[in-house]
Structures are given as structure tokens and as C-alpha cells.
Amino acid sequence: MASEPGNEAVKTEELAELLRAIRERVAARYPDGNGAVAEPVADLAPLARARDAAEAKMAAIGSVNPRRPGALNSLIQAVKRAIARGLGWFVRDQVVFNRDVLACVEAAIEALNALNCSLVSVSRRLSVAARTAEDLKDISSHWITWRSEWEHKLATNEVQFLRAVADLQTAFQHRTTLMETNFRENVKAQHADYLGALERAALEMQKTLAADFARVSTEFQALIHTELRLIRQRFSSLAPQAPPLVPVEAATAETVPGLDYARFAERFRGSEEFVKAGQRFYVPYFAACQEVLDIGCGRGEFLELMREAGVSARGIDLSRESVALCRSKGLEAEEADLFAYLAKLPDASFDGIFCAQVVEHLPPVQLPEMIRLAAEKLWSGGVLVIETPNPECLAIFATHFYLDPTHRRPVPHALLAFYMEECGIGGIEIQRRSPAVETMPALAPLPQDFRDAFFGGLDYAIVGKKILVSGSRIQQTTRADT
Fold first, then answer.
1. What pTM did the predictor assign?
2. β-pair type (378-389, 333-335)
3. How far is CA 364 from CA 85, 369, 407, 415, in A?
4. What are the φ/ψ torsions at residue 66 (nearest 5 degrees)?
5. Most CB contacts within 10 A, which of 23, 118, 288, 351?
């Protein structure tokens, strides 16, 4: 008996449902689509087979089993269908229940399938996490080594960096110190140069001022000297003529017959070295001179000092023995009286005259003539130095002055200064020499001012320079003109 069209439709629907179920089961078992299960999941195939069997039984409710064709069978089939249709109202609820149960089973299968998919996804993620963990474990195992090496390299680099910074700081500090030292040295050198230049400029200014002052003073003294001479000459022309002066005798000093002058000088004046050391003080006054005369040269101590200074000098003395001693030393000396010797010389013959321990031997009336002659024989600007015992020092009369029997009278420096000014000698200065306290320690307890006033230098030296006097008989030419 041929199958009915309704049964064919039911079978087609069942087949499509079966294919769908198969796809779902395959998708559930192989969710990654490559036929390999990443992780084992719940097997839903038995549940799907039970569902399919239940669906088949449910589909068979109300149907008649097919039989072989024939009248009897057709009658039987008709009866069965009539009975099935008659019982349809009775089993309708059971069929609905069965369908609902199958729908519930279908929903459970879908839920389980979704769960399997979730589990597979979780499993996949866990696999990825496991692989990541393995990688992280490998990285962690290497990370310890890497970190130790990195820390070692970091420490090494840090040490090298700190050393480099320390070296740079040391070099910078050294350079800074060098720069500061150089700066200080340059500033110090510049300051020293500045002070030196300032000192030199101040010294030059002082020298210029001193030279100008000396020039003005010399001109002023020359002017005063000239005016005074003119006044004297005017008054002398008005006054009655005085009798002519008797010329001064040529003798300068008394002599003691039979006196061993060398032994006398050695004992009471001192050794040549002692006298020479004392007269070295006068060398700077004659350093710029070209021709010097030593009046009363004695043993030649001052002539030797001039020779050492490279200055041409000659001396005169009344003692033949002293002159012979000077010549034995290779010095230029001559036995002569100072008045006769100076009188025969042309004017302006010397630019320096030195006279030590002589004027106290002269008669007081001859002293002005001696100063006049010395002034005439000097160039303009020439130096005249006279040394003699100092009458201001009371100790000189108790010790040295009267030891020499040829001493006449001590000459105060004020009197000598007056004579020199009268003869055109200016710029006069007094130098007290040989302090008495050095040879007489008993004077040390005295008060300083009292000792200086009454027991000062045993000797004094008076220093002056020839000034140019116009309109007078002692006018001299300058060194350049000479």
C-alpha cells in the first residue's frame, strides 16, 4: 500500500531535524571546526539519541502500522484509523505534554551545547593562558638572569658615570683653581705694575719738583746774593775809603817740629780703614763729579774712595810724609799750601771740593778767604763739603779737640754757613757725624733731647753748592760752557 503524502512530509521534516541535530552535535563536539577537541567536554550524543527516539515515538502516536496491500488489510487499517481518530481527544493532552517535554529536552540540549561551547572557549582561553604562563615562566626564569645582568650593568655604568662625573668635577675644580690662580697672579702682577708705575711716576714727580725747587732756590739765592752785593757796593762807594787790607800770609797751619804725623794720626784720628769707613758717607755727593779736589788729603782715604767710585780726584797737603804716602798708593797728591795753590788755579777748575778736619787748624781771619777761594774754583753747581769738629758737642772738648796741638779754634756751623752764603754757596745742609754716645757709653743714661743738644755728633759736615751769581767778581761758567 503506497504511503500517504502526509507521512512523506513528516519524514522529510524528521530528516531535516535529524540533519540539524547532527550539525549541532558536530559543532558541539568540534567547536574549533578542525575536528580536534582542545579539551574534553560533556558528550551530548546519548541525550540527543534519546531525544530522537522520543520524538520518533511521539510522531508514531495516532499512526497505523503499514501492512501488505489487500482488502482485509485495508479494512483493518481503516478500523485502526477510525479508532485512532476516536481516541485523538483522549491522547491529545499526552501528545502536548510529550511535545513540551521534548521541547524542554531540546532546550536542555541547546543549553548544554552552549555550555560546552563556553567550556571550550574557556578551555581555549585557559590553553592560551597556560601557554602564556609557560612563556611567562620562561621569561621569569630568564628575567632573573636578565635582571641580575641588568643590575650589574647598571651598577657598572653608574660607577663609571660617577667616576666620570668625579673626574669632570676634579678637572673643573682644577681648571677653576688654575683660572683663579692665574687671575689672582695677573691681578697681583697688574697691581704690582700699577704700584711700580705709580711709584716711579711719583718718584719722577718728586725728582722734578726737587729739581725745580733746587733750581728756583738756587736762582733765588743767587738773586739775593747779587742784590746784597749791589747794596754793599753802593754803600761802600759812598763811604770814605778804608785803608787797604793787608794780604793774608800763605801759611795755613802751624807745624810741630819732629812730630811723627803718621803715628799721631793712627793713634788719635784712627786707622785708615776707620777713617775711610766714615768718609764713605760723602761719596754720593761727588758721584756725578768729573774733577774733585781734596784739601788736606792726609793719608789719602777720600782719594781712594773717589778712585773706587771712578771719579777723577787729586789732593794737596802740607805734610810731605802724607803726600809721599798718597803717591805710593798711586794717588795724585801734591805738597802745597791751600791759599797759594787755589790762588794760582783758574776759576771754575773743579766741580767738587772736599775738606776734612782742616778749617779748625786755620786762623779765624783766614777762614773767609779760604771759603772765597774755594767758591771761585768751583763750577756753577759744584759741591763743597767741609768736615770739622762740632763745638755744639761738649764731649769734643773733653776728648778729641785739644789732643791736636795745631788746632786753633772750633768753627760753629752757623759761621761756616754764613761765610759760604757770602761767597755764593747755596743749598746748605748740615750733617752731624760720629755720635758721641758711640765712643762714650756713659752718655747713654742722659735724656735723649739733652744728649742730642749737648752731646750729639763729635763732628759735623756742611754741604753746599755753587750758585750762578751774575754781576759779581765770582761769576762762574756752567759745566757745559767749560
1. 0.50
2. unpaired
3. 199, 10, 11, 11
4. -70, 145
5. 351
Burial of 217 (0-12, 13-18, 19+ CB in 10 A): middle
Q: Which helix (H) or strand (E) holds 433?
A: strand 425-435
Give the domain 250-466 fold: Rossmann fold (3.40.50)
What CA–CA distance (Å, rounded) separates 21 from 30?
Answer: 14
Among residues 124, 152, 111, 117, the alpha carbon closest in space to that of 31 is found at: 117
Strand, coil or helix: 447: coil
pLDDT > 70 in the chain, percent: 73
pLDDT tens per residue across span 343-383: 999 988 999 999 998 998 899 899 999 999 999 999 888 99
DSSP state of 404: S
For strand 378-389 and strand 457-466, is the pairing parallel, antiparallel, or unpaired? antiparallel
Q: By percentage, how much of the chain surpasses pLDDT 90?
A: 21
Q: Can you state the percent helix, strand and coil of the chain, rounding each to 5?
A: 65, 10, 25
What residues does 386 pair with on adjacent strands?
355, 462
d(CA 360, CA 366): 11
CB 338 within 8 A of CB 252: yes
Phi, psi of 82 (to 5 degrees): -65, -40
DSSP reduced 3-state for 69:
coil
SS3 353: strand
How many of the other CB atoms lie within 10 Å of CB of 225?
A: 23
All 3 cell numbers of residue 116?
Answer: 560546552
Task: Give residue-wise pLDDT tens across range 431-442.
Answer: 888 887 777 777
* Among 344, 345, 364, 356, CA closest to 295: 356
Sign of CA dihedral 131, 132, 135, 137: negative
Report how far Cα 53 is from the mean position of its chain's Cα atoms: 113
In DSSP terms, which residues pair with 314 in a beta bridge?
Answer: 293
Distance in angstroms (rounded) separating the CA atoms of residues 385 and 294: 10
